[in-house]
Write a structure and sequence with these properties.
This protein is α/β, with parallel strands linked by helices and 518 residues long. The chain is built from twelve helices and 21 strands. The model has no long low-confidence stretch (mean pLDDT 86).
Length: 518
């Protein structure tokens, strides 16, 4: 091998160890975030993802073995082997850069990490241990090697025992209660750090009520997210207590329960005349500190206009990005109206959202005093056959059904009627947009509230000249694709004859104000 500075650096012992670690990390990281590498799993080349993964593993193994052989100093390499090594090293560097791009610059890597790490960690941990011991074996004698192995085993046992013991003692609410208003009833939802039994207790007309999270008599004990339904009249200006009992074992016979935690709230209800409404939308798993600003607002209603996450990879995303922010702002004391966003339709747990929250439907109508809110589910913002969606959506017919449902609603002209929908256009095709415009125009809504665009806008003549029948206000959302450390939100002061909209930012405060005479 030619003796030059580059080769001396490349084959120095610290460099060998660093390169071996990087080579090991590349396929490990790929498998942690494999669901996020969507662009290399293109339908035009169905095996691309598996080919890339195979190349990552092969080149990683070759680089690690080569570095170990270099490290041992007992092997003389021929030119073809060195060339192959350089090729594999180049592939490893390329794959490293690709993985870094996915981890740093694209959205929601933490969801993929959380989703796959527990399953992948034991296998890659064992592999890393083998490679580590292989490097150690080249520089220590057998007695020292045995001592190192025993020490590592003892440390591993101590660390994993500590982690497991800590897990046994940590059981708390991942999210405090959220009271969703879905029309004729409230849904109280919350989340815990481990599988548990959930229930609420309250007193109404001097009678005590206990409502379990259950299905046909079977109490739900296998979930971390719980929800129960309560009649509206039972909760207005009333107190309730949420209980969760940890499940240590969910076996068929003699399942074991653990400790019980609880938290109490007093539900305020909603005034009839003048109300203040907070709007958050397109939060996209933003930095939790961004909710400090809307949390301090004094409001009567919270509207979440969708896209709380980039996608719903697991149930934890629902707890972290929907329930936790809504509970922080509403404190379980005011109702929350939720309109589903297009990103809320994506990911493995997207289909579990309705099941976990017990929504009968994501389009519904509810009334607070002098105000009626009609909520629609705009679904995806692309056609059903859009390649990125992979053929797992069927929203076009779903939206048509909603328009038919909307056309059969009877308007109460004594109320201020607000339409709540994530996508300002509601749908995709010009034909559907036209049908939607006609339907909402015939109904005669006073205002439409939407998100989706991440920018504030207000027009009394509709959105983008496509909705020409009612005023449309679009609320902005999270700022920044990378850090996501600023959040825009809106506060609506609603009176019988006027709505004032204050556009605010976590960092900038009040940004703009709109007003609408009704």
């Amino acid at each position: 091998m030619k003796d030059n500075k580059f080769n001396r650096f490349l084959f120095a012992n610290p460099t060998k160890i660093i390169l071996a670690i990087i080579a090991f990390w590349v396929p490990f990281n790929y498998f942690l975030y494999q669901d996020f590498h969507y662009f290399i799993d293109d339908s035009s080349f169905w095996c691309a993802r598996y080919l890339i993964a195979f190349l990552m593993v092969v080149t990683s193994f070759f680089v690690i073995v080569t570095e170990w052989l270099h490290f041992s100093g007992k092997v003389e390499f021929k030119k073809p082997y060195i060339i192959t090594y350089y090729v594999c090293l180049c592939f490893t560097i390329i794959f490293t850069l690709v993985n870094l791009i996915f981890c740093i610059f694209l959205n929601s890597p933490q969801q993929m990490f959380r989703k796959n790490f527990i399953n992948m960690a034991p296998y890659f941990g064992a592999t890393l241990a083998v490679f580590t011991m292989a490097f150690v074996a080249t520089i220590v004698n057998r007695k020292k090697l045995l001592a190192v192995i025993v020490s590592l085993l003892l440390v591993s046992i101590f660390v994993f025992t500590g982690i497991f013991s800590l897990h046994l003692f940590v059981f708390k609410f991942e999210s405090d209660p959220v009271v969703f208003d879905v029309g004729d009833e409230y849904i109280i939802a919350w989340a815990t750090t481990d599988e548990s039994i959930g229930k609420i207790e309250y007193t109404y007309n001097n009678e005590k009520y206990v409502v379990f999270d259950e299905c046909s008599g079977r109490i739900n004990s296998t979930e971390t997210i719980h929800s129960v339904k309560v009649p509206k009249e039972h909760l207005a200006n009333n107190s309730y207590t949420v209980y969760s009992t940890r499940m240590y074992s969910n076996v068929a016979y003699f399942p074991q329960q653990g400790n019980t935690i609880s938290t109490s709230r007093t539900f305020k209800g909603v005034p009839n005349e003048e109300i203040d409404v907070a709007i958050i939308t397109d939060t996209h798993n933003c930095n939790p500190k961004c909710f400090n600003a809307p949390e301090k607002e004094s409001c009567d209603v919270l509207i979440m206009l969708g896209d709380f996450s980039d996608f719903i990879a697991d149930d934890q995303a629902i707890a972290d990005y929907l329930l936790s922010p809504c509970s922080r702002i509403s404190k379980g004391e005011i109702p929350v109206i939720y309109a589903k966003g297009n990103h809320d339709t994506r990911g493995e747990s997207a289909t579990r959202l309705q099941y976990l929250l017990k929504f009968d439907s994501f389009y519904y109508q509810t009334t607070f005093g002098n105000y009626t809110f009609t909520v629609l589910d705009s679904g995806e913002c692309n056609y059903d056959n859009y390649r990125e969606l992979g053929g797992v959506v069927h929203f076009e017919e779903y939206r048509t059904n909603q328009i038919n449902w909307l056309s059969n609603l009877v308007k109460d002209d004594t109320k201020t009627n607000i339409l709540v929908v994530h996508n300002p256009l509601f749908t995709v095709s010009d034909e559907e947009v036209a049908l939607y415009n006609t339907t909402i125009g015939d109904f005669g809504f006073d205002l439409q509230l939407s998100g989706h665009t991440h920018e504030w806008s207000y027009s009394e003549n509709g959105y983008m000249d496509k909705i020409t029948t009612i005023p449309v206000f679009v609320s902005a959302g999270v700022v920044g694709d990378f850090f996501k450390n600023d959040l825009n939100y809106s506060i609506l002061n609603m009176k019988a004859d006027k709505i004032t909209i204050n556009c605010k930012s976590f960092k900038k405060g009040l940004v703009n104000t709109y007003s609408l005479n009704i």
